[in-house]
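User: Please predict the structure of the protein below. I'd like the answer in structure-token form so I can feed it into my own downstream comparison script.

Assistant: Understood. Taking the following sequence of 316 residues as input:
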Amino acid sequence: MGCENGTSVTEFILLGIPLSSQFQIILFVILSVVYAITILGNATIIVVSLGDAQLHTPMYFFLSNLAFLDISFTSAIVPKVLVYLISGNKTISFNGCLAQSYIYFLLGTTEFLLLAVMSFDRFMAICYPLRYGTIMSPKLCLQLIIFSWFGGFMDTIVQTVLTFRLSFCGSNIINHYFCDVAPLLKLADGNTYLIGMLDFILASSLVLGSLFFSLVSYGCIISAIQKISSTAGRKKAFSTCASHLTVVFIVYGSCIFMCVRPSKNSKIDSTKIVALLNSILTPLLNPFIYSLRNKVFKDALKRMTTRRHITENQKA
């Protein structure tokens, strides 16, 4: 349905987080540093996982994909925020808003599915260690990655297409710092209740469904660990899962509040800080959680650094 008494919106204004100019500069510096560390940390995981033969395992294959998702996820939001913090330009075109919204939710939903896949990988490693290498073949690992991306695509494309097929004829001010679905629905003309409920159902199903799968996997893992006779064996088995379990709690803890709610009736202002933390903090923490707690990864990083240092000395 078109705009009968007005002109269709061609660009939106992101209201962002209202701050004084002084605090905007401080926030710009903080976000810039955090963004740089996030990119560097996740890129390190990808480079080390690909470059060290001892890390060519399903666990690090999934971890490097998670690192790629984190880089892309935070890059979908943070650069635009940095631009309007330093320049004051808060406008975004209609097509740019469509792209940002789709990419953000595509990567977010794909990450939920990937975390569930990683839970399955840890379940197979702990509960079926003798068959793990045979079951988690490179072909199956690739299929699970494709499943994660395809599931994220199918979940996101429906709500994005339906939202941007609506008519936007009135206000073009989005009460957020990125093109979230909830504030966009508030600007649309006509009845958006069904689209809002569909968004709620899809988000709830994917978030809670993947969380349930992860919790069931870890329930089985904990049960299997308790059956290990030696204390050292139990500690070693749990240490292989602790990092991923920590990430699961962080990701789902920050996202359930934002996602599992009817978007039309939500209080957008109350979710801005949580959304910012989800976009920045989780991708920032993941490299530290997986590297600082992981001796195998730290050893691989040392080997790669040593090889590079030797190569540079030989060239010199």
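That's the full token string. The two ends are 68 Å apart (CA to CA).
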